[in-house]
Design a protein that fits this description.
Elements (H helix, E strand, L loop, with lengths): L2 H19 L17 H38 L8 H70 L2 E3 L2 E3 L2 H26 L8 H30 L9 H7 L7 H21 L11
Length: 285
Amino acid sequence: MASWGWRLALSAISDYALVAVGNPLTYDGKASFGRAGNRAREVSMDVRQKWNARWLAVVLAAILVLAIGLVVVLWAFGLVSEGSFGREVAKGLLQLIAVVVVAGGVSVFVQRYLTERDRRWSTWQRRDEELRSMLDETVAAYHATKLARRLIRALLWDDAAGNTVELTTYDDQMFSLNSAQLDFEALSLATQVLKDPRVDERSLTADFETIEKSLNRVVKEYESKRRHVAYGKGTIGTLPNLADFIAKARAGCFKNDIANPTEHAIEMLRSALRMPATSKPVNRL
């Protein structure tokens, strides 16, 4: 007779586990969490889990109150004498009360576990999204810089006064370089607050700052020397920072101040994305 209380309580616990934890085939953190196509389903599942958990808590509480009430009634009316049916019922109810209390504790533990799991996955997803966005922006800014450099070198006029820079070319490509310089400046600021254990923020920030400062020298020169170009006096000889920027890789600043730091930053970001988001912090110099 008393065993029915255990069977009922264990059934309630198993039902709660299925409701709260869910089917692992439909909620796989590695396979589905973080994919845009499954985001709506995950949100719906999370809401459904919380709603079902609350209903189960209400049911368990109702069972607990009812069981305690029945025990009190049986005891008050003297129906728990030795060998009586009421005594067996009371034993089953007491067992049910004990297991419902245990089930309530398990439900609280499982709910906290689910909340913490979801919080961790959300943090890991956000970190990966930040790194991917930073990688894409780095590659785009670097390609824009390389394109401007190639176009300036290709569109120079070679005459008796030296390599002359046309105003239209100068304006167009300085606009591109100015945008790239601002992008690298934004990346430098974003890296300082990245707080991802897979990335050495100081090293990555140093790379972006080196690139930004090199491009900034060319842009500052444009601000002060554009009028010379506008009046036909803009030769490479009068624009030393631009000359350094478009010089051959071994002779100018492009390789050491732009290409190498960019390649280092890209490799650092790619390596970080290949690592799991739970990885230990990288060694910082």
